[in-house]
Specification:
Blueprint (H helix, E strand, L loop, with lengths): L4 E24 L2 E25 L2 E23 L5 E13 L3 E10 L2 E10 L19 E12 L4 E12 L1 E2 L4 E2 L3 E11 L4 E12 L16 E15 L2 E16 L3 E16 L6
Antiparallel strand pairs: 1-2, 1-15, 2-3, 3-4, 3-5, 5-6, 6-7, 7-8, 8-11, 9-10, 11-12, 12-13, 13-14, 14-15
């Protein structure tokens, strides 16, 4: 949570490559497919406003993100002919698209070295969605996530321990009549600052779908997903003009995927304040 009132900017480049073998079927864009190989390269622009640091004893932040990206998907689709026979055909699809915007709000509190943040995000389904196609960036459904995060940070020794847990509630995609079930996510991080400019650490996440998929398009039944990701991060703190800025790299490898693609994720983020209201006593 930003410690002062102001306007803050973040740009994150996200790259994900994942696959699943031919024995695992998926429903993508209303299509029943297998042998999936997908790559997503997207840029997320986020602007966050901190209007007050004294709301219910904490700091309020509101903001929004807009993703723009290119998706490439290759699959094998099983097609049933008039005589009942099955034919497997390969399909490839790619597109550059604007995804659904996401709006967010958070309220955070600090007590000595401990920080707590409650947050909510809403995916607004107004992005570019290609009905019936394999490659999409937009989800084309309302999504609400509620999360609670905690951090213990000791600047004297340079250690930062953080964790976050939340539930994601999914609406129905009207184009496919598919409603994804409620999802649980848990993230954790252990990071060490080696100097005021450089830090590094380990990060991980756990995802599990706790209720099944539903709707006429859920031809594979509940299809509950689960996956674990383990990775590393490093950050470089710099000054741009007179403003502090952070360049951060994160990389993850996924394991034990069930009803999910399994792959690698890479994040490159640049964060800086656009404007800050510093207390008058601060030099």
């Amino acid at each position: 949570m930003p410690p002062v009132e102001g306007v803050f900017f973040d740009n994150t480049i996200y790259i994900y490559g994942g696959s699943a073998n031919a024995e695992r079927e998926f429903v993508i864009g209303g299509n029943l497919v297998a042998d999936v190989d997908a790559t997503l390269m997207a840029d997320f622009v986020t602007v966050t406003l901190v209007p007050t640091t004294d709301l219910l004893g904490g700091t309020l932040a509101i903001g929004g993100s807009l993703p723009v990206g290119v998706t490439q998907v290759g699959v094998s689709a099983r097609v049933t002919g008039p005589g009942g026979g099955n034919v497997t055909v390969s399909r490839h699809d790619s597109a550059v698209l604007i995804g659904d915007p996401v709006v967010a709000g958070a309220l955070g509190w600090q007590a000595d070295k401990f920080h707590v943040q409650a947050s909510a995000t809403v995916n607004v389904p107004i992005g570019q969605y290609r009905d019936g196609e394999l490659a999409n960036v937009a989800f084309h459904r309302w999504i609400v996530d509620a999360s609670l995060a905690g951090t213990w940070n000791d600047p004297e020794v340079g250690w930062d321990l953080s964790a976050k847990a939340g539930l994601t509630f999914n609406g129905e995609n009207p184009a496919t009549d598919y409603r994804t079930g409620t999802e649980f996510h848990l993230e954790g991080s252990v990071e060490k600052a080696f100097s005021p400019a450089i830090s590094a650490g380990l990060q991980g996440y756990y995802f599990r779908q706790v209720t099944g998929d539903s709707g006429a398009g859920a031809t594979l039944g509940p299809f509950k997903g689960e996956v674990v990701g383990i990775g590393a991060t490093t950050a470089l703190n710099v000054t741009v003009g007179r403003m502090p800025a952070t360049l951060r790299v994160r990389a993850f490898k996924e394991f034990n995927a069930t009803n999910r693609l399994s792959g690698e994720a890479f994040f490159l983020s640049f964060t800086m304040p656009l404007q800050m209201n510093l207390p008058s006593e601060t030099p």
